[in-house]
């Protein structure tokens, strides 16, 4: 038996091994869901510009098609406005996917499309929504503002027909929450986070999120919307998932749309129906990206 003695002071004359990494090495082909993607921060701005450039181009095409059928190019019909708004959301999602590919092939979990614990997510969501309404109340009270009717539903022709009403409701409560959360919290915020950390990225993302609603909302209420965007960034950080933010965005839009239409119980129906559609879409994405031969597995 060998006896190993330590030198005076009880220290070995060897360098201490490097500390263990935060995340131990995983087998080849396995990815971690709790890691943030290393997207380049400057691509957030390019994606924003590309998304809106594509939206403007798509709106021009839609306007030309509508004009070819006898509509006024400067005052397009509700169907053209709705199609243009949907095209904007699609372009934002497409831009996020396009620039995400500059680093690695995009995966749903990189954008936050992953499961999270239900009750903590509900708690953080309620806290974020409460903070938003408290901030809005203080903002309105301090400046003596008066809440008016939302401009966007009227611009989309919500009162022109029942079909337009349903289409705008789906656009506001389903399409917009999914697309805007996917782009702003899923990609824009995640990319900026790699620059200076969470807080600067959340502040910038909130400011940009509020500013894009100019035109559809009174200018005085863009600041509360910016705070809402900021809160949604923190919600993603706390829950590790984009789904709570999508649900909260859906709830807020359902309430705002329902109030603008003087609805009562219909608001709850719109919210529940929208959540069901979003949940089915999320399930389809999850199943499509389920582990299969040739696809990377994901570590919980």
Strands, total number: 2
Tally of helical runs:
9
Task: Name the helicity range.
Answer: 55-70%
Give me the side-by-side strand order of the main sheet: 1-2
- Counting helices, strands and paired strands, the structural category is mainly alpha
Shape: globular
Contiguous runs where pLDDT drops below 50 for at least 5 residues: 1-6, 10-31, 293-300
- Give the rounded overall mean pLDDT: 86
Give the termini distance in whole angstroms: 45 Å
Biggest beta sheet attributes: 2 strands, parallel
The radius of gyration over CA amounts to 23 Å
What percentage of the residues does DSSP assign to strands (E)?
under 5%
Write the H/E string, N to C: EHHHHHHHHHE
